[in-house]
Q: What sequence folds into this?
């Protein structure tokens, strides 16, 4: 397209120049040398053709060079890092560059969309944090102001209020701790301390820690294991304990009275095991499953607030599992129950032997 337009321009210019030169030459020849008209016409015709062709090609190449240099400068400014300009030798190559430019354009559009999504996400995130902190803060403030009034003298009620205040502080603390951990994982500061440990010991620790909570919620905690032999895995013990705690805590929180939470360990491939935590609790509707591991995501907002969740538990779990390059799965059905499972890597036999 550009080439065709360009040819015509050079041709027209060459035509003007050739006509001008020939008229000038012929006029001079006519007046000064007194040539016969026939010869003069012949000479003029030949000169005209020669000048036309010569000037045309001269202009054509000059113009092409000029345009290509301009386009190359333009590209170099636009994409200093690409090598695409080195292939720009003639106008035919411009098609290729146009394609590059189109690709660049769609890449940039994607980038802008990503940034916009991030911006929205950030706004949501800040809104959620504010909300998470506001609730316990207002509770604390309420109790403290009431106590400061000095009108309550009953020691029992004072103690009760102080206990509530302390609960609010606890809640603030764990939200902040969770946020801190998530931020660390997301910015890649959190490092794992990978070493071999017996995952059965870890499970027993968690069971002991959550025993009271399980009793309170009237849920039976069961460990389904086929043998007493240790199961050595290679991971960050503290973090894996946190994963198991969060998952079992959820099964207690969202379980039903007289329900059962069962933990089982299964061999997977040669070097992997699967830790399964299943409950017969209230379950989760299918529509929520894809977003379950997002920060602050909750299935039912009001219910969970009452239960004191921050909606960060599963997102922390996912971060820890991802950092280990392991996988986590969830299966759930409303009113039937849920099963969360994740993989762990077995410790190599040579390492375990030395322990
Ligand atoms: N075992 C479970 N049974 C039913 N619902 C669950 C279970 N585990 C998680 N959920 C749902 O997933 C949501 C997100 O869990 P989580 O990230 O731990 O946040 P929360 O702080 O609310 O417990 C919970 O609010 C709950 O609705
Ligand atoms: Mg939770």
A:
């Amino acid at each position: 397209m550009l080439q065709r337009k360009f040819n015509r321009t050079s041709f027209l210019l060459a035509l003007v120049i050739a006509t001008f030169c020939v008229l000038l030459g012929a006029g001079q020849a006519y007046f000064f040398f007194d040539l016969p008209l026939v010869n003069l016409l012949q000479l003029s015709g030949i000169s005209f053709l020669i000048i036309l062709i010569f000037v045309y090609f001269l202009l054509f190449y000059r113009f092409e060079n000029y345009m290509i240099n301009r386009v190359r400068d333009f590209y170099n400014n636009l994409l200093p890092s690409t090598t695409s300009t080195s292939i720009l030798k003639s106008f035919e190559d411009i098609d290729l560059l146009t394609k590059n430019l189109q690709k660049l354009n769609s890449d940039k559009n994607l980038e802008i969309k990503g940034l916009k999504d991030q911006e929205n996400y950030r706004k949501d995130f800040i809104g959620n944090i504010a909300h998470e902190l506001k609730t316990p803060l207002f509770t604390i403030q309420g109790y403290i102001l009431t106590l400061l009034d000095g009108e309550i003298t009953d020691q029992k009620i004072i103690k009760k209020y102080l206990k509530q205040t302390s609960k609010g502080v606890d809640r603030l603390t764990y939200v902040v701790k969770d946020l801190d951990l998530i931020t660390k994982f997301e910015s890649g500061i959190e490092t794992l301390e990978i070493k071999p440990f017996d995952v059965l010991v870890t499970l027993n620790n968690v069971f002991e820690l959550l025993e009271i909570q399980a009793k309170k919620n009237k849920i039976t905690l069961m460990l389904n294991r086929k043998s007493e032999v240790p199961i050595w895995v290679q991971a960050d013990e503290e973090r894996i304990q946190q994963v198991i705690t969060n998952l079992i805590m959820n099964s207690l929180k969202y379980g039903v009275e007289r329900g059962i939470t069962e933990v089982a360990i299964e061999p997977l491939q040669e070097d992997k095991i699967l830790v399964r935590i299943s409950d017969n609790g209230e379950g989760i509707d299918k529509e929520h499953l894809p977003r379950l591991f997002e920060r602050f995501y909750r299935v039912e907002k009001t219910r969970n607030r009452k239960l004191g969740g921050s909606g960060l538990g599963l997102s922390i779990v996912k971060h820890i599992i991802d950092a280990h390059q392991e996988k986590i799965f969830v299966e759930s059905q409303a009113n039937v129950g849920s099963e969360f499972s994740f993989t762990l890597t077995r410790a190599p036999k040579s390492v375990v032997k030395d322990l």
Observations:
- Strands lie at 195-198, 219-224, 232-235, 259-267, 272-279, 328-333, 337-345.
